[in-house]
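It would be a great kindness if you could assist me with a short task in structural biology. The matter concerns a single protein, recorded as an amino acid sequence and a row of backbone structure tokens. The record follows directly beneath this note:
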Amino acid sequence: MSSRAVLRFYAELNDFLPPEKRQTAFSHNFFGRPSVKDMIESLGVPHTEVDLILAGDQSVDFNYRVNDGDRISVFPMFEAIDISEVLKVRPEPLREPRFVLDTHLGKLANYLRMLGFDTLYQNNYDDETLARISAEQGRILLTRDRGLLKRSLVTHGYLVRADDPYEQVKEVLQRFDLHDAFKPFRRCMRCNGELFETAFEEVKEQVPPRVRKFACEYKRCSECGQVYWKGSHYKAMKEFIGEL
């Protein structure tokens, strides 16, 4: 015999629902005593997008077993209200924002590295590898695949909504409140290694003759050896960062 619960999703969590279930309370039939996490994800909402769950007026965690007649309210991240005293589902916050990105977000990875954020990206990472790296290294998984965020290994993740890379970086910065955390030009945009200042004599074989005429400061990647200087793109990159 089936049971019935009434669910209501709030704010951007409605992005994951079919139109008829958005911005309204709706009935959901189920069998047995599923966890509220399983029920939420069966409706298409990844658990990493959820910040607060209420069963009636009580805050519950993902392991809560749904009862017949329950009224379940599901909320995303609260931007302006401190609800820390009632939270049951949010994992411990990461000490610093570090990311791993799926294969569809290469341009976003470049932007995040430009801003100084530790960002892993390779275009051959499969879903299992992405979930494992996120869990083992304490990295926020950014993806365009909601199914990937439903993996139990993933505790910190976010589904990127925007299609345009510039809008994507603005979205991520706002979602994780990172506007005061920029450390530009400290990461290699090729491999994510840290950049260190270096003397011209140490890198002159990697610097084109035309560059030697105007560049006097150089940085080299500690991992791949790529050399950087303030070239023609530097001004545009500074303006881009200023806009963000």
